[in-house]
Write a structure and sequence with these properties.
Layout (H helix, E strand, L loop, with lengths): L1 H5 L20 H7 L3 H16 L2 H7 L11 E2 L5 H30 L5 H29 L19 E2 H23 L6 H20 L3 H26 L3 H32 L1 H4 L14 H33 L11 H10 L1
Antiparallel strand pairs: 1-2
Helix pairs in contact: 3-4, 3-5, 4-5, 5-6, 5-7, 6-7, 6-9, 7-8, 8-12, 9-10, 10-12
GO molecular function: sphingosine N-acyltransferase activity
Family: Belongs to the sphingosine N-acyltransferase family.
GO cellular component, one term: membrane
């Protein structure tokens, strides 16, 4: 027994451990986790398919309905939906890729000191990138068009059925962006004005789609330009806020408030006024789909209703802007009153 007691006990053989892979807890988390690879794979297939001569893939990548090869004049049709779908995926991919590999590392390196702030910084960085790019393109298109600061040209020579390639691409890609924004709105942490923002996006999609189909791309171009400038300045102000550059942030926010007032409540009001009082001066306002005419007194009322609803939402947001201005004038820094509770908690901790 003594000898047996002195013998070492046999070692317990442990089974090799298998690495446990925890699946995403929800479909939402799965989609967010694959925002780069899944859309990227589909986009790559579309590009390769287009190069290989696939008719469907080519519709996704190239403009459809050119009147004559090399004319740079395009009609409109159902095949345009392929290009819109391509850009919905493209914006999903680009947004996730640029946020992850450009703006998040930048935020970490330059003062954004927690993950929530880094995420918000990256979101605003993407918004700034998109808005500045497409506002510049939209202004360039309008500058080279008859409707440059001339609302009468929205209606003169209507219907404007054929449009050049630049205008068509700009319009369809903008539609793709706003459809993708509905997706973004539902994956981001909800802000206080979630339903106002959702309503704004739906109205914008309706206006872009319908104005494209009924040959009012000129007025659509002008409206989009009115909206994009304020987004550039607001996203820039938020970026500066997350980097703790308070003074520059406050100055930029002041420019944003002024730009909002001029473009969204000045120029946009001029567009609403023109829609209400100018069409009958330059067009017969008859319903003739075979001739590309869709603007009647009834459809005029529909557009005016959508414009006014959009304006009411923007007045709601302008009231929030005024609250921030009051805070700045009383010695506080400009912060987004629409931010979610997580951002508010972070701000309270900082103070």
């Amino acid at each position: 027994m003594a000898a047996a007691a002195l013998r070492p006990s046999p070692k317990k053989v442990e089974k090799p451990r298998t690495k446990q892979i925890t699946p995403p807890s929800s479909l939402k988390e799965f989609i967010i986790a694959h925002e780069i690879d899944i859309p990227g794979a589909i986009l790559l297939c579309a590009l390769v398919g287009s190069a290989a001569g696939s008719p469907v893939a080519r519709k996704m990548v190239q403009l459809s309905y050119e009147t004559q090869p090399g004319s740079n004049l395009y009609d409109k049709g159902m095949d345009d939906a392929y290009l819109v779908a391509f850009w919905v995926l493209a914006f999903t991919f680009l947004r996730a890729f640029i946020m992850k590999y450009v703006f998040t590392p930048f935020a970490k390196a330059y003062g954004a000191d927690n993950p929530a702030k880094q995420l918000r910084f990256a979101e605003q960085g993407w918004t700034f990138t998109y808005s500045s790019t497409f506002w510049s393109l939209g202004m360039y298109i309008m500058y080279r068009s008859p409707h440059w600061f001339n609302p009468a040209q929205f209606w003169i020579d209507y219907p404007h059925i054929l449009i050049n390639g630049r205008m068509k691409w700009y319009y369809l890609v903008q539609l793709g962006f706003w459809i993708q924004q509905v997706y973004v709105l539902n994956i981001e942490k909800r802000r206080k004005d979630h339903y106002a923002m959702f309503t704004h996006h739906i109205i914008t999609i309706i206006l872009i789609t319908s104005s494209y189909c009924v040959n009012f791309t000129r007025i659509g171009n002008a409206v989009l330009c009115c909206m994009d400038l304020a987004d550039i300045l607001l996203s820039l102000a938020k970026i500066l806020n997350y980097l703790n550059l308070r003074t520059i942030c406050d100055i930029t926010f002041g420019l944003f408030a002024l730009g909002w007032l001029v473009t969204r409540h000045g120029f946009f009001t001029m567009i609403i006024w023109s829609t209400a009082f100018d069409p009958h001066k330059y067009m017969d306002m008859k319903w003739e789909p075979e001739n590309g005419k869709y603007f009647t007194p009834f459809t005029q009322k529909i557009y005016l209703g959508l414009f006014l609803l959009l304006n009411m939402i923007m007045l709601f947001w302008f009231a929030m802007i005024l609250k921030v201005i009051v805070k700045v004038l009383t010695g506080d820094s400009a912060t987004d009153t629409r931010s979610d509770s997580e951002d508010s908690d972070d701000e309270d901790k900082r103070k």
